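To: structure desk
From: M.T.
Subject: fold request, one chain
Message: Could you run this one when you get a chance? Sequence is below, nothing fancy, just the single chain.
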Amino acid sequence: MADQENPEETTTPAPASPAAGAGDPDAATPKTATEEPAPEAPATGGAGPTDRAYEAAADETAAAEGAAPDATAAEPEATAADEPAPAGDAAMTTPPAQTATPAAPAAPQAPPSTPKERKVAGRARRGTRRPATPEERDELRRQKAAARTRRRASEKAKRGETRGEGTPRPDHGPGAPKVRLGKVVSSKADKTITVRIEVARRHRRYQKIVRSSTTLHAHDERNDANEGDLVRVIEARPMSRTKRWRLVEILERAK
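Reply: Done. Structure tokens follow.
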């Protein structure tokens, strides 16, 4: 019972006799319970209380002796973890899925052919940096003005080349001016008469005579026409804001 209650209690060896100590030096050295070999466990059945006490004491002694070496061994492990791994190890530890495959050589691009493609390529070569100083902005303006001049000259040359080809333009002679007959309704203005033109035509659906009238201003250079005269006027160049006609002759005087 005492062994089961306090399994860590060690047994004190009996003192050796002087006669035995004088003859055998090993017999004078006291032996502790930890140095005694633990009894072998029986082949069948569980360990007894005494065996468990011996095993617990042996574990404590081994833990006390291995604490110091473990503390000193932790420092080299930490140092080894901080050191970078060699290149060969890194290459070996890299998974095959993450290794970069060599890129295939890019196919040579065809030179830009259209003006839009050339413009985009030129912008890519120049970059997108905007001029920051007034001198740079002036230089950019001069370059753009020179480019516009060249473009307009080329377009003008192209128009000149295409103009000589194909069907020539028809030559139009002077058109026939309009001529109207009307009655003078006013001659108060200087060198200007107001003529009323009466038109009577048959309606195209109801076949009824429809009468309408319009007034116009005509130029009378000699102030010869009077109110009520029947005159002939002809279309002419614009002489004022409303005067586009000219007096040709007086056909009948007013009575």
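Reply (cont.): The longest strand covers residues 192-202. Let me know if you need anything else for the meeting.
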